[in-house]
Amino acid sequence: MQVAALALIRAGIDALPESEDAWRDLLIGLTPDFPDGEAWALVVEDWSKPALLQPPVVAGGNRADYKSRLATPDALDMLVTAKNHDLKQSRMAGASEEEWLFALVTLQTTEGFLGAGNYGVSRMNGGFASRMSLGVRPAAGGAEAAFRRDVQRLVADARARPDRRGGIPLLWTVPWDGTVSLAFGDLDELYVEVCRRVRLHRREAGGIEALAAGSKCARVAAAELKGKTGDPWAPMKADGSSSHTPTGAGFGYRQMAQLLDTGRITLPLLAAPHDGDDRTDLSIVAAALVRGQGKTEGLHRRAVRTSRMEDIDAWEQAPLDRIGHVAGKRADEAGEAGRRLRRALISLVQGGPEQARLDDDAAKKKTERWLDQFNRMVDHDFFDADFWSEAASDDGNHRLKWRGRLRAMAGEVFEIAAAAAPRTEMRRVRAKARGRAVLDGQMGKWMKEAEHGE
To answer: Rounded to an integer, what distance in angstroms lies between the CA atom of residue 39 and that of residue 79?
Structure first.
C-alpha cells in the first residue's frame, strides 16, 4: 500500500489505475534511475543494480560478503524455528517466485534484531519489539477493498499537507555495504525500508536461492525514535514515548480495549473513519506477527465488525473514541467478575474451608485453566449487540445488563470446575456448596451496586 501511495503521490495522480500497464508505468516512474524495471524484478544478476527489496552493492568486492546461503523461502523468512521441531526448518523446496516474494516482504519490512549483524526495521519500538497494524477497513470486499481504501486515504492525506516530508521513498534502491545508516530525515514519510543485505539469484541447477550478508549497523538511524516514524498503521503510546508493542496474548478483549483507549493509545491515521467510508460496512482490524527475544510468539489478527456507526457519530466523542470508552468499561467489569470468580474457585479447590486462603499460590495456579475459559467466553460475547447499543447511547441500564451476563458466565464456569475438581464425593459436595456460596455472595452484592446504572 505504501508503494502504491508513493507512486500516485509522486505522479500527481489521485485515482488508482485499473490496468496492469498503468501500474507498471507508475512504478517505473517511482524509480526513474532504473527505467528498465530492475528495482521491481525479483532476480537481477547485476548486483550493482537493485532488485525488488534487495539493495545493490556499493562496490564489486562487496559481493564476497554474501556468504550465507539460504535454499528455501522459509529459511529466509523471519519465523524463528531454532529447535527444528513442531515447525520444521527449510521445508519449502521447489518454492515459487511468489513464495520468495512473500518471504522477502516479511523479512525486510517487519523483522527485528536477531543477533550480531542482523538488525531490524526502524518502524517499531526496539529490536525485540514487533511491528503491528491497526486500522479501519471495509468489512466486505477483502484485500482489494482494504488496499483501495488505505491507498486513497494516504494520497488524500499527502495532498492535504503541502509541507509533507519527501525524500528517499524505496530504501532498496540505495546501495548498501552494511557500514552506513541512512538518516531518518532523508527519507520520505511513507518510506519502504529493507533491514537486511539479501540478494536472490538463480542456481545453475534451476530454482532460486538467497545469499545474505551481515551489517555493522541498522539501515536507518532511528533507534532513538522508538518506532515514532509516522507509520500510518502503527498505534502510538498516548504519552508520545514510543510505538505500541503487542504481546503474545494477541488481540483479546482486554488488548482491544487498550488499543482503543485514548488515554493509553494514539490511533494512527488509517484507524480513523473518514468521509469516504461506508459507515455501515466497517471493521476495526488489528494484526501483528509477535516477536520475542529469539522466538516467535504467534501471528495474531482480529477484525471487529462495527455496528451503528451512524448513531455513534452523533455522540460528542469521535466514533472510535466512544467505542474505546465503552470497551474499556466492559473490560474493567469483566476483570472484576474474573476476580470474584477466582475467589470462589480458590474456595472450591481448597475443599470448601470456613475461610478460603486467597493468598494460596498453589490454589491460584489450579484455577487458571477455568479463568482462561471464562475469559474466552467473555471474549466471544464482548462486541455483541448490547455493546453497540451502549456505544450508541440507547436507553437502559447497560452496566447491570453486562454484569448479569458476566455473572451467568462465571456461574457456568464454576459448575464446570466443580464437576472436574478431584475430590471424594463428600468433600466435593461441601467444596461446591461453599464455593458456590462465595460466588453468589460476591456476585449478588456486585449486581446490587449496578441497579441504578452508572
So the answer is: 26
Q: Mean per-residue pLDDT for 132-138? A: 95
- For residues 7 and 29, is the Cβ–Cβ distance under 8 A? yes
Contacts of 450 (CB under 8 A, 6+ apart): 397, 399, 400, 403
Q: What is the mean pLDDT of residues 242-270?
A: 95
CA dist., res. 286 & res. 274, Å (int): 18
Q: How many CB atoms lie within 10 A of CB 322?
A: 22
pLDDT, residue 84, reads 55
pTM of the shown model: 0.90
Q: In angstroms, rounded to a whole number, what is the distance separating the alpha carbons of residues 44 and 28?
A: 16
**Distance separating alpha carbons of residues 21 and 34, to the nearest angstrom:** 17
Give the integer Cα–Cα distance in Å for 314 and 287.
Answer: 29
Contacts of 50 (CB under 8 A, 6+ apart): 31, 34, 38, 39, 44, 56, 172, 173
Cell numbers given for 410:
462465571
Q: What is the pLDDT of residues 259-273, one digit of tens each?
A: 999 999 999 999 988
Amino acid at 257: A
pLDDT average, residue stretch 167-180: 97
In tens, the pLDDT along 346-396 reads 999 998 888 888 889 998 999 999 999 999 999 999 999 999 999 999 999
Let me know: does 288 contact 152? Beta carbons within 8 Å. no
Amino acid letter at 275? D
User: Between 353 and 454, where is the model more confident?
Assistant: 353
Please give the grid coordinates belonging to residue 406: 458476566
Give the angle subtended at the CA of 288 by the CAs of 286 and 293, to the nearest 5°.
145
Contact indicator for 370, 345 with CB cutoff of 8 Å: yes
